[in-house]
Design brief:
Layout: H1 8-24, H2 28-33, H3 40-46, E1 51-53, H4 65-73, E2 77-83, E3 90-95, E4 102-103, E5 109-110, E6 122-126, E7 129-130, E8 136-137, H5 143-150, E9 155-159, E10 180-182, E11 187-189
Parallel strand pairs: 1-2, 1-6, 6-9, 9-10
Antiparallel strand pairs: 2-3, 4-5, 7-8, 10-11
């Protein structure tokens, strides 16, 4: 069965299992260093874009906190997603490495309610799956899809493990493709 023939729910289940197995096979020290520094092509792509949205890793997602700290050192300002009061809403709030994060109703962490709202120039988003056509599969809530639509000029960069790559993902005409994907093995840029 091809990736396209599977439903998104089946794909999510399969890819989450694949991701969990991949991370379980890694040594703890290895998982801690793979995303320790932003690769030069990422810094080149970000250029002089000021506000970069990162995310707090959840479960088996790659931890990009150290990349965030390096981006601050390179002169960027960070933001993190913050879930809204209404279901399905999300904005981005100012974040600095070391800031306390609050738990959300989904067990994720986000900036405090009083953190200043920011409009990102680049959005680094976690992935469930991706393909070389730069389509992405997320958790299914549409949060990042709506964020991409709200910030159409922001560069969209997916963050995931190499085992999350698929031959082809189902997508809709309104889906906004990624501009790049960063895995522990490579930097993939839209052609």
């Amino acid at each position: 069965m091809t990736d396209r023939a599977e439903t998104k729910a089946q794909l999510r289940q399969r890819l989450c299992f694949r991701r969990a197995s991949h991370v379980a096979a890694m040594a703890p020290w290895e998982r801690g260093i793979v995303f320790a520094h932003p690769p030069s092509p990422l810094l080149d792509l970000l250029g002089d874009r000021t506000v970069v949205a990162i995310h707090a890793a959840h479960g088996d997602e790659p931890d990009i906190a150290r990349i965030g700290a390096a981006l601050v050192d390179a002169g960027h300002r960070l933001a993190m997603p913050r879930l809204g009061d209404s279901a399905g809403t999300m904005d981005f709030a100012a974040y600095a490495p070391g800031d306390a994060l609050e738990p959300t109703r989904y067990g994720l962490a986000h900036p405090a309610a009083d953190a200043a709202k920011l409009a990102p120039d680049a959005i680094l988003c976690p992935l469930i799956g991706f393909d070389r056509a730069m389509h992405r599969l997320g958790q299914g809530g549409g949060y990042y899809d709506r964020a991409f639509a709200a910030h159409p000029d922001a560069i969209r960069i997916g963050i995931g493990w190499s085992v999350q790559e698929c031959q082809a993902l189902p997508h809709e005409d309104h889906d906004m493709p990624l501009d790049a994907v960063l895995t522990e093995r490579e930097w993939i840029v839209a052609s």
